[in-house]
């Protein structure tokens, strides 16, 4: 295909001079994540990423000849069957991903919601070149046994600087699945400590010997409750709480743990308020019933603020406040899985900040945009009563913690959470117009007031996603029919206009 610059897709009006980021040491960083968004902030974001392409460029089919050549070589040594597209990260920048054939796509999928402030971000390049980063990479410590002398400072100036309200401690891990599994372990140990009479009560000989045979009382008879169509990872424990797709679970032994119905809301929300309220009330009744009657008692309930892999399923703040009340009432912990929703994408740094909870969650798990993983908590009893009970060799990665610190500094400096809220409102409004113009193509539009964490259903979803690349956009799906938007925090109104133009071209080209 001939090289194509998409006429009709409005390019960003960007300065021609590429700017480099100030070093974090030279910046005067704001101390809050919630100051009012201003036009000057918008200009600051634009000029900062002025090295971006002006818009998508599609030169070949995707994959093109060079990509196919690289994929053939890769397939000999690595399973490539899940490949979405091959990328050349040396040429990707800001909101744009580039492939070996020179195709330049506006990336609103962002490595499955995992890139917060753009490809080849200058501030992150500076952080990667720092002596602290070199030290963390080449002397990677086993943090549980040999933490560095400045590990507390790294945590306090980074990960803990943006800790959710009510949470002042963190356990660092390797990935989202790992974060959830360690949170489950914390819940089980907390529950058994309470049943024994407190953390000072010693284990019995029977408990220690039976644990070695995977039998009770040492191996506790406890569960984690999750929700239908939820996703919490692919490791053994987390997989027993994942309910989004059979392909994740087939052939894998699983625990007999309870699952409750996640409210299936109807859209537009304002037209189905009474019906949706009844669905949420019924879901909460089911949660309470399962807590009281399931034959393996739940130590915790885990929930996503928005069920991301299961189809971008939403519930109201009232539902989550009700869930907090039910778990408190029955002495069950509440784990909020913010692996995909955390770090600003919903217009709040943490999505559960939208809920106005009466008391904080007991644990909040994170990964993806944080570029590291783990869980936050506040109750000291969630720290095990003995060493080595919550332990592995690495216990996270200090290099990734340093990277997250640099990300936090940029998010604050450029006011990117507020930027995302503002741009999300604009994008949602324009998508509402498209849904009225093409009602069969943009169904069940959802995510109003949730930043750029927006989705809609399309009856030909897989073809929709494939065709998007032809019009210069990399976009993802979830569930059976959902097209999900996962732009970066540096996504601006100009990028939204490019995306909207491409979306309309897709649905008018069938």
From TrEMBL:
Biological processes per GO annotation: gamma-aminobutyric acid catabolic process
Residue intervals passing through the bilayer: none
GO molecular function, one term: pyridoxal phosphate binding
EC class of the enzyme, as a word: transferase
Keywords linked to the UniProt accession: Aminotransferase, Pyridoxal phosphate, Transferase
Region annotation (Disordered) ranges: 15-36
EC annotation from Swiss-Prot or TrEMBL: 2.6.1.19
Biased composition, class Polar residues, residue ranges: 25-36
InterPro entries: 4NH2But_aminotransferase_euk, Aminotrans_3, Aminotrans_3_PPA_site, PyrdxlP-dep_Trfase, PyrdxlP-dep_Trfase_major, PyrdxlP-dep_Trfase_small
Pfam families: Aminotran_3
Recorded superkingdom: Eukaryota
GO cellular component: mitochondrion
Cofactor(s) it depends on: pyridoxal 5'-phosphate
Catalysis performed (reactions): 4-aminobutanoate + 2-oxoglutarate = succinate semialdehyde + L-glutamate
UniProt similarity note: Belongs to the class-III pyridoxal-phosphate-dependent aminotransferase family.
Protein name: 4-aminobutyrate aminotransferase
Protein species of origin: Neoarthrinium moseri
